[in-house]
């Protein structure tokens, strides 16, 4: 069973068993006249004797596919369904679908035949549909007459159709006869990985890309700069890069793999906090309080050189990450967690007044910093995103309207409830730290999230704690992201992280594709995951 499954029967088809040919079609008159072993001469009509017909096959109505995430709708039909066989083809109607065609052909052991107009038994055909205004991530998959047809208004939708087909036939299964119509509830379905505090190998990240793709995720966040490390090769500032890091060639390969599976890689260089690795190479940019004490991870945003180095890095990596999204961070700037920022950091207070007027505060200066970094990435056609504790209440300087809110916590000083952002018209991505944060070593109050809790209690509208925001704001919640944070980096190996996030990722995928109450119990969902892997 699957979430929100609509089962219908084609017009004219009885709910009783219908005799069919061996190929799944309806039986002809010569096949439907008599029961096996009975001649027509035995009938009251008294017609001439004819040969005893052979038994015919009949099929029950098909059942909806069992996939993760579950399909939104399946129209049942009668027939044998489809399963891959050696020598069968994957063909495309549109050359743009060549990558999708080659991938599913290789996965199912079929032959990729390219763009073809003819039809053969066993074919899987991929096609773009002309449906203006339709969700580009939607698709229709028809299993009929021993063939499969997958179509959608965009390449991504067709790709998701191939993921459904792959799961349907996993382990020797059969794609059920009928029509699947499917589309995600949310446009942002993400996974964020902290590679700054812990080095993850390129191979491990590529494995996660493949896993995410099969679950129909469409974003991979890479948090690659923090106090503990800067993990991607840099040409503009090689001095900030940690010994263990990814080369640009490795990152390009990850990005290309992600693009081939319709996943956007969303980079994050967090600022003005969490810049310890950059500051270590540029100690003159360290923020210090009125007593001269260094403030951990914080760059001094009163110095023009601070903006210059961060913009250098943002501009450099815009060429490495071609996707349309960029995460600016903005969280936990330690100058704003003290009781009187203006007294503790007089240089920031002076810079605030000079930039924004006599009544400006350090929070205004930090907001101006965020807007300036947003302008830097906006010049590269990126949509900026920032953590919710980088948005401050009662400031004269307001964050730019297009900066999306990455809502993760309600524990910061002066915490603002999610509705404050939503009622102001902002778009929000859900990173709820009580459900979606996998923090290595479980520091502070964090505990490893479970797939069961996400599956049974969380929805994209549950932005903070366990209570959902009103349904009227659902359209402003773009989706969500599961996140791995490596606060205590040595607490788990890469393999342990992969195993620990396996079921939480699957539960998150289900709830982002369809936020309604799933029809499978958790036990059955977990068993399905075991069968599909």
From TrEMBL:
Any Pfam family hit: Glyco_hydro_20
Occurrences of domain Glycoside hydrolase family 20 catalytic (ranges): 189-513
Name of this protein: Family 20 glycosylhydrolase
Keywords: Glycosidase, Hydrolase, Signal
Signal sequence interval, chain numbering: 1-19
Organism: Streptomyces ferrugineus
Compositional bias per record (Polar residues), positions renumbered to this chain: 31-42
A GO term for molecular function: beta-N-acetylhexosaminidase activity
Entry annotated with the keyword Signal: yes
